[in-house]
Design a protein that fits this description.
It contains three helices and three strands; from the N terminus they run ββαβαα. It has helices at about 35-45, 60-70, 80; strands at about 5-10, 25-30, 50. It is α/β, with parallel strands linked by helices. Strands 1-2-3 form a three-stranded parallel sheet. The protein has one domain (about 5-80): 3-Layer(aba) Sandwich (Rossmann fold), CATH 3.40.50.150.
């Protein structure tokens, strides 16, 4: 796969990324606060790994960041900028 691999944050139903694949941007990880919206997103994008929950909670942030690293997804916000006490 060539292009960018990224994360969809605050995904809702994924409308914002409808044409990203056409631009060679591949979303492989997503986050949504509410389970109902995460389920809806996953219906349309079953190939995307979804992390449900508030990223301000340590366990959700850690799970998202771990999966991001494993998948090689790019993120515009560095972990140390978002949570300076972690590194």
């Amino acid at each position: 796969m060539h292009g960018l691999t990224g994360i969809s944050m605050f995904s809702s139903a994924g409308v914002a990324e409808t044409y990203l694949e056409d631009l060679n941007i591949h979303i492989r990880l997503a986050n949504e606060l509410l389970q109902e919206r995460a389920d809806y997103y996953s219906h349309f994008y079953p190939q995307v790994d979804m992390v449900v929950g508030d990223i301000m909670r340590d366990e959700v942030f850690s799970a998202l960041n771990k999966k991001r690293r494993i998948q090689g997804s790019h993120c515009l916000v560095e972990e140390r900028l978002f949570h300076p006490q972690r590194n």
